[in-house]
Amino acid sequence: ITVSSGPSLVEMPDIIGFTQANASKKLDALGIQYKMVMVDNDGTMAAGCVASTDYKAGTKINTENVTVIVSIAGERDDTLVAQTGNAAESNSASPEGEAVTEGD
């Protein structure tokens, strides 16, 4: 006779913003299977950190047959930043080539 207590359900932790290493440690400790994928970084995310997961925090997942997809932000791509307009404004206080000093 085999007795089963049912599927092994674990609550998905909130790992958004964790470093890749810390996210791995947390998921490993909970017995959650996962696959990490790199995603383009438009400058709004910290490079090397968790940008998203395909299961929301608090969701009960079956550790026996579910693999969580963890998206890791890649290195910041300044060309994407320029295209999306998320870069900090450059020095627009004075026209290029002119020095600004107090008392002028």
Rounded to the nearest angstrom, the distance between the terminal CA atoms is 92 Å
CATH architecture of the domain at 9-78: 2-Layer Sandwich
Number of strands: 5
Oligomer: single chain
Cα-atom Rg, whole angstroms? 22 Å
Strand content: 25-35%
**Widest beta sheet: strand line-up:** 2-5-3
Mean pLDDT: 81
Helix content: 10-25%
Low-confidence stretches: 87-104
Q: Helical stretch count?
A: 2
CATH class bucket of the domain at 9-78 = Alpha Beta
Describe this protein's structure:
This protein has a three-stranded mixed β-sheet, sandwiched between helices. It has a two-stranded antiparallel ribbon with strand order 1-4. Helix content is 17%, strand content 28%. The protein contains two helices and five strands. By secondary structure, it is α+β, with helices and mostly antiparallel strands. The termini are far apart. It has a domain at 9-78: Trypsin Inhibitor V, Chain A. The chain is elongated.
